[in-house]
Amino acid sequence: MAYSEKVLDHYNNPRNVGSLDKTALNVGTGLVGAPECGDVMKLQIQIEGDTIVDAKFRTYGCGSAIASSSLATEWLKGKTVTEALSIKNTDIVQELDLPPVKIHCSVLAEDAIKAALEDIRQKQAGGQQE
Amino acid sequence: MKKTIFMDYQSTTPVDKRVVEAMVPCFTEVYGNSSSRNHQFGWDAEDAVKASRETVATLIGAKESEIIFTSGATESNNLAIFGVAEMYREKGNHIITCATEHNAVLDPCETLEKRGYKVTRLIPKPDGILDLEDLEKAITAETILVSIMYVNNEIGVIQPIAEIGKICRSKGVLFHTDATQAVGKIPVCVEKDSIDLLSMSAHKFYGPKGVGALFVRRRNPRVRLSPLVHGGGQERGMRSGTLNVPGIVGMAKAMELCIQEMPTETARLLALRNRFETQVMGALDYCFINGNKDRRIAGNTSISFAYVEGEGLMMAMPEIAVSSGSACTSSSLEPSHVLKALGVKDELAHSSIRFGFGRFSTEEETDFAALKVVQAVKKLREMSPLYEMVMEGIDLSTVKWTDHH
């Protein structure tokens, strides 16, 4: 199976690899997937007000999984939380030209975004209660 | 150095030029149909086939009349399993095989199961070697066939074939072995090993694709088979169809070369593999060699690189052509059935790569490949959330994972 140029570009030059302080109140962490399934994504976002100012990822998985998460972090930066929630896996499929067998990689990336946003929502809800 | 280094010798091999030379006249000069009994063209083709059949037979300790030429090991395996199952149906309906077999054995067995046969799939020990006691216990009065591969195509381990043969012989059960990865690499003798049926494929030992053979024992015991392919009655009626004369000549030549060069070649490949393993394992933590380290063929190593995924890893080293223990590249997301049978955890099975060394592998290539592997694994571990967690001291088995499949 040949990879699309965009997958290769993200795979060879992944954007935003790394980690943010997961204990910080304005950092949300999404950890999705499972090692036995062959892919795990950790996606983190940092917000200021309602805007995502930074995003980082680490992914264990195939090239398409790495490219999907790299693309997701690129898209997240500068978006508002509401805008981020509207990112769909199909957008990633389209942008990266993922073949049907790799669609689950894009689903995982969407799940990771949602999980990171949910983490931050919970953290901030908790923070307000205190 | 070549642009891409071939390290997938278990999947196939390039045809040796000396083999090509032996084959060429069969396309343009000796082009007769070896079944044509009434003219020179047919006789010449028949002579070429006869000489090749003798060579192939001799090199595995068999008689000329015991070699059935086929299109390859998949067909040979199918012919052996379906052929015995149908012919010996009156005697029994039980077949024993191993969970680490190639699909060319497992699939026919599964098909037979659907037709009412009973199939036992033995689980090998964690090092990939079959437990002989398990085999003995599995044999019943209904057992008609035991099919155990000689050398595993993923992890390269060599099964105790002579012992298995002895057990089968003593119980009066036919013994088939898929020797696709053994012939041409280690000495194989159907007499010494008490083998009744043996499959082989030319393209695995520097011969052409599309040709193989099935050894079918004629004496003590005489094995009878129902054919899969019906027609002109070639190959003693067991495999009809015009013989692939160039292929057969090529296979015999390729086998001859392998046997001649085996002692020096085995030592050379062993040195290359050890060199590779030393370099890779020395530079990386959390790497594991799959299968028994002592009982395996020289040109194979299967390594699990924990916390990186096999397909992603192959993509990170496009300079080397290898194969993943994970079947992720196909539509299934299941890791290799071989590694699973060994009890290798799924996450490690997903992280496994098979490296092959063969006739055209060099030291320079081996060193280059080892370097690329180390670089790629390090790069991906930098990106791996699992490696990061392990470095932080987190036990991955305590993490609650989300299963998205």
List the main descriptive attributes of the protein structure presented here:
heterodimer, A: 130 residues, alpha+beta, Sufe protein. Chain: A, 3-stranded antiparallel beta sheet, 48% helix, B: 405 residues, alpha/beta, Aspartate Aminotransferase, domain 1, Aspartate Aminotransferase, domain 2, 4-stranded antiparallel beta sheet, 13 strands, 13% strand
Quick summary:
The complex is a heterodimer of chains A (130) and B (405). Chain A has 130 residues and is of the alpha+beta class.
Structural class of chain A: alpha+beta
What quaternary form is this? heterodimer
Number of helices of chain A: 5
**CATH architectural designation of chain A:** Alpha-Beta Complex
Helix content of chain B: 25-40%
Q: What coarse outline of chain A follows from CA principal-axis ratios? A: globular
The DSSP helix count of chain B reads: 12
CATH topology of chain A: Sufe protein. Chain: A
What does the average pLDDT of chain A come to?
Answer: 92
Strand tally of chain B is: 13
Order of helices and strands of chain A: HEEEHHHH
| Alpha-beta content class of chain B | alpha/beta
Low-confidence stretches of chain A: none
**Helicity range of the residues of chain A?**
40-55%
Strand content of the residues of chain A, in percent? 15-25%
Please write the CATH class name of the largest domain in chain B.
Alpha Beta
Roughly how many Å apart are the termini of chain A? 53 Å
Number of strands of chain A: 3
- Domains of chain A (count): 1
Strand count, sense and barrel status of the largest sheet of chain A are:
3 strands, antiparallel
Could you tell me the CATH topology label of the largest domain in chain B: Aspartate Aminotransferase, domain 2
Can you tell me about this structure?
- The complex is a heterodimer of chains A (about 130) and B (about 400).
- Chain A is α+β, with helices and mostly antiparallel strands and about 130 residues long.
- Chain A has helices at about 5-10, 65-75, 80-85, 90-95, 105-130; strands at about 25-35, 40-50, 50-60.
- Chain A has one domain (about 5-120): Sufe protein. Chain: A (Alpha-Beta Complex).
- Chain A has a 3-stranded antiparallel β-sheet.
- In chain A, a hairpin with a 2-residue loop joins strand 2 and strand 3 (about 50-60).
- In chain A, helix 1 crosses helix 2 and helix 2 packs across helix 5.
- In chain A, about 50% of the residues are buried.
- Chain B has about 400 residues and is of the alpha/beta class.
- Chain B has 12 helices and 13 strands.
- Chain B has a 7-stranded mixed β-sheet with strand order 2-8-7-6-5-3-4, with helices on both faces. Chain B has a 4-stranded antiparallel β-sheet with strand order 9-10-13-12, with helices on one face.
- In chain B, helix 1 (about 15-30) runs antiparallel to helix 7, helix 2 runs parallel beside helix 7 and helix 3 runs parallel beside helix 4.
- The radius of gyration of chain B is 22 Å and the shape is globular.
- In chain B, about 50% of the residues are buried.
- Mean pLDDT of chain B is about 95; it is low at about 325-330.
- Chains A and B meet through strand 1, strand 2, strand 3, helix 2 and helix 5 of A and helix 8 and helix 12 of B.
